[in-house]
Amino acid sequence: MADTIKGKVKEAGHAISETAQKVGNRVSEKAEEARDWANEKLHKGQNRAEEAVDKAKNKVEEMKEDAKSKADNCGCD
Fold first, then answer.
1. What letter does residue 73 receive in the DSSP assignment?
2. pLDDT tens per residue, range 17-55
3. Rg of the chain taking only CA atoms, in angstroms
4. Element of type H or E holding 13
5. CA 30, 33, 38: angle at the middle one, nearest 5?
6. How far apart are the C-alpha atoms of 47 and 6, rounded to whole Å?
7. Is the CB of residue 50 less than 8 Å from the CB of residue 42?
8. Dihedral of alpha carbons 22, 24, 28, 30, sign
């Protein structure tokens, strides 16, 4: 423990600096966690969108095949 005012102020400054560093580290960790979470949600959304596109393309192809088979079997001979 410092005996002089100068020493006490210096100790208080060090304590504030340490606390600020701890807070900064914690904020940084939480920001990184938030970024990771957001990236995970983004990738899930992209995957769902790709699946929906693939499903729609498959449905279109299926409908084309159905239409083609109906046109080939129209009984118009």
1. T
2. 999 999 999 999 999 999 999 999 999 999 999 999 999
3. 33
4. helix 5-72
5. 125
6. 61
7. no
8. positive
- Specify whether the backbone of 75 is left (phi greater than 0), alpha (psi in -120 to 50) or beta: left
Residue partners of 63: CB distance under 8 A and separation at least 6: none
Which residue type does 38 have? Answer: A
What sign does the CA torsion over 70, 73, 75, 77 have? positive
Answering whether pTM is above 0.85, one says no
Q: What's the number of CA atoms in the CB half-sphere (13 Å) around residue 19? A: 6
Structure tokens belonging to residue 18: 């340490």
CB-based contact 2:10 (threshold 8 Å): yes
pLDDT band at 14; cut points 50, 70, 90: very high
